[in-house]
Amino acid sequence: MATQAVRSGLVPLPLSLERQGAAHTTAKLAVARQGAAPQAWRTQEARKAFGSRHAAGLGAACALLGRTARSRRERRRFRLQAKAAPEKLETPPEMTFSPDDPSVFTLGVLGDLHLDPRDLDHSFEGRQHMKEALGESVNPFLVSLGDLGESKDCTQTKQIFSGTTACFELARDFLDGFDVKYDIVGGNHDLEGIDEFQTDEANMEAYLRLMGKESAHFCHEVAERTLLVGLGSTSFRNAPYTSHEVYIDQEQLDWFEKVIREHPADDDWKVFVFTHAPIIGSGLRVLQQVHVVNGCCWLNHNHPDMAKKFGQIVRENDCIKGWFSAHFHLSHDYEDSITFPGGNNSGACVFAQTGVMTARSSRDGRRHSRIIRGNSEGFQVCTVDHSKGGVVRLDATVQYSDSCFVDGMEALEEGVAQCSTLVYAHPHVDYDHDLWFSAYTPQEDDGCYIQDVTGTLNPVGSEADFSKPDTVCWWHMKDGAVLGVHNSMVIEYDATSLAPLGMVVSKDEMQDRRVAVIDDEWGGNALVLYDDDTHQVTVVQPNEDGSYWRRVVRNKMHRMKEMRREAAAKNWMKEMRGEAEVLSSYGPYTTSAGQVMGITTRAINPKAVASK
Question: Would you say 275 and 313 are in contact if contact means Cβ atoms under 8 Å apart?
Answer without folding.
Answer: no
